[in-house]
Amino acid sequence: MVAASGATGTPAIRRIGLLTGGGDAPGLNAVIRAVVLAAAREGWEVTGIRDGFDGLLAPDRLGGGVCALTPDDVHGIAHLGGTILGSSVHADPFHYPQPQPDGSIAACDRSSDVLAQCARLGLDALVAVGGDGTMAIADGLARQGLRVVGVPKTIDNDLDHTVATFGFDTAVAFATECIDRLHSTAQSHRRIMVVETMGRYAGWIALHAGLAGGAHAILIPEIPFDLDPVARVIAQRDRAGRQHSIVVVAEGACPIDGTRALQAAGAAG
């Protein structure tokens, strides 16, 4: 972190906000600790925002929505899973769910409320830790004048200009271990096993874990698949006396003539 220079006409930073958004991933608490310690070295105060942007948009529901964070508060949290600040996957200020007079719920733009809350709390800048959704929100707020630092977090590793997002390595290691263990079962029972991994739009986890775990076929969203070549590989293995196969499939993999569709939660009944 670098304090803003008064020479540029930009107010110096004295207090920053810190939030974690989206799904939890390994390393979030380590990032929280690093931000707080780095801010302390600069002489900045840190205000933790609870449950992502909900802490700014629904503070009454969250006991005020914010808390002070000092080096003592983050001592010993680096190895802990989850996030001490909490998170939310439904708190997009630009499409925030709001009850309507008729009892329905409609998405409203409450980004101006985020800016107002940041001003009320005396936040000179915001550190947003999250994936593509949180980074898109951070970009939108930055375009409205808020000083923002985005910390890329996603196990999918699908953020541009980022070599490896934190959380990805742990996800690959876990998926690889699962694939390793399935080899014995597949071989013992002479089965073809299909392993689905996270990755709606990006196949990094499936590709890395599949290669590391010795999968016999890997299907990823970036390359529409044809099942015929996959079937031929499995048949060739069977003729060679290898009567088991493991196919790793990213959740967003799609056949050549198929389409991808998202289903709203609860729509399936």
Q: Can you tell me about this structure?
A:
By secondary structure, this protein is an alpha/beta fold. The protein has 2 domains: 6-152, Rossmann fold (3-Layer(aba) Sandwich), CATH 3.40.50; 168-250, Phosphofructokinase domain (Rossmann fold), CATH 3.40.50. Helices cover 32% and strands 18% of the residues. The protein has helices spanning 28-42, 54-57, 111-120, 132-143, 168-189, 204-212, 227-239, and strands at residues 15-20, 45-49, 66-69, 96-99, 105-108, 125-130, 148-152, 192-197, 217-219, 245-250. The strands form 3 sheets. Strands 3-2-1-6-7 form a 5-stranded mixed beta sheet, sandwiched between helices. It has a 3-stranded parallel beta sheet with strand order 8-10-9. Helix 4 (132-143) links the parallel strand 6 (125-130) and strand 7 (148-152). The protein is elongated, with a radius of gyration of 23 Å. The model is unreliable at 1-7 (pLDDT under 50). Pathway: Carbohydrate degradation; glycolysis; D-glyceraldehyde 3-phosphate and glycerone phosphate from D-glucose: step 3/4. Residues 15-255 form the Phosphofructokinase domain. It is found in: Cytoplasm. Keywords: Cytoplasm, Glycolysis, Kinase, Magnesium, Metal-binding, Transferase.
